[in-house]
Amino acid sequence: MSTTPDSKESSNNSSGEGSETKASNQLGSDSQHDAQIDANEQPFLEHLLELRQRILHALLAVLVLFFPIYYFANDLYSFVAEPLMRHLPAGATMIAIDVASGFFTPLKLALFLAVILGMPFILHQAWSFIAPGLYLKEKRLALPLLVSSIGLFYLGMAFAYYAVFPLAFGFFASVAPDGVTMMTDIRLYLNFVLKMFFAFGFAFEIPVATVLLAMTGFASADGMAAKRPYVIVGCTVAGMLLTPPDVISQLMLAIPTWLLFEVGVVFARVVEKRREAQELKEDG
Q1: Distance between CA 128 and CA 134 in Å, rounded?
Q2: pTM to 2 decimal places
Q3: pLDDT, tens digit, for every residue of 106-136?
Q4: Which residue from 88, 177, 188, 222 puts its CA 20 to 30 A from 140's CA?
């Protein structure tokens, strides 16, 4: 059975009209949603009451997580201290200089872990507070960024623990002078570990930052790529300031940070292409 040119043309026209109708319906629903957001603006006092409620929910979640974590606080501290203990000389242990360090140090670790593990719920409360005031386009972009920011922060902490700590502590143990026994205070060690966790956690957020810059129009992907030499210098300086004074730790922060910047530039180009395609649909 043959198909005439007229039937082919009519079929193409109908499919084109269908896609245009679908796009116009999508734009119409988005505009209707955004208009509803503008019309349902709440008074300032109601915003404050809801904010207080969200903060209380977040604090309650941290409190609920804290008690079971604190029950295992000593075991968790042993797990956190394992990269250092592995490189201590035979017979050497960690020490507690302050009288109350044995109590407050595991307590501090338990509180930190409760906040970190409760971060998805805390960010969900923040999202529930701001989402009703966002336009539909903003919601589609903000939610993936929130989810990816949590995952990247966890990834940065894991990278510090499993990759950086063994190399750094092995280096420190190997360069200790003869006759000096390496015995680290538990409070000072925890402060060092938390500093490294935050440094690598926030450093791994660079792809999110670059995408946000592209989304808001503060910088373009080409503009950020053109500033690559300055970014490399900034990553190196950050590695020098945020890590111990050894080349290994500094490079293990600087190099992943630069690579994550390159990943962020790639995603920024994707965001710009999608935005250009959306603008063409709206103009058409």
Answers
A1: 11
A2: 0.77
A3: 999 999 999 999 998 988 888 878 777 766 7
A4: 222
